[in-house]
């Protein structure tokens, strides 16, 4: 990335450090507003749509191969700075996001990819169309980047999250950008790849990351469940597997979701932040069921605890029905203001009781509760 001016906080002016954003913005601004608003509508003729699609596909493929699948913007810097340090798996040959957040925002990031030469690029003859334009990876080797001012780019896959002591113990937030846009095959010398046939070795890299990750925070960029407008890729979108998304929603809870400022006409990428959830196991046993008791079997139900200050708002409305929420807005504001004091009070109580609570044994997860779960 090009030279840039330094800000007072030591980070760089992002103008010269985000050529992907500049190129994408220039193209999207060149399109009439009616094209952008009604691209998949019957208001456009098939010929109009095909012309724009071909233009966008040619430019998009070139930018993916040269930079990244998704486009970062200045608003996102605060997120990475807040949750730093970062470890990225699947950074691609260009390591675009890692370089951007480090060069522009001064973020401490370690980035990995199993292929530092071709990772993340569109292969020739793929469903995305076109030929892959090879680009020499600048500074992509371990030797050139190891320890360079908070930016490290190394070869490796999901297993480094557990096998690398420094990564595992540093409690870095895990960053995944389009982690499953291509097939992931565990290395034969890894435990994941032992005694597996070729079909079994094809898996979700994002899900494999959750197998190895021991930290608390996952940052995901791409489409998630229900976001995509593609019927062929619905409902999970084009960025990460259903296996990963199901585990992410089950083992973590979302605390932040924001739309990327620049998306291609057919894409609905977002940045979301997920925090590992505290879980509670409740064991129920029917009264008088002696046979079940002797077998040691019971009805186990698992729930996760989400602190009140980590709960996303539920009330959402499209502009066409936003008026249906207006009557609730005043009450919502009043409740929010009232809750601020109670949440702050709860936080003070938690901090005050932290020392004593840590010394107490956790509730026995195997305690049997009379009755049945509902």
UniProtKB/TrEMBL annotation:
Superkingdom classification of source: Eukaryota
Region (Disordered): 1-20, 123-163, 331-374
Polar residues compositional bias, start-end: 11-20
Name the UniProt record assigns to this protein: Methyltransferase domain-containing protein
The organism of origin for this protein: Thalassiosira pseudonana
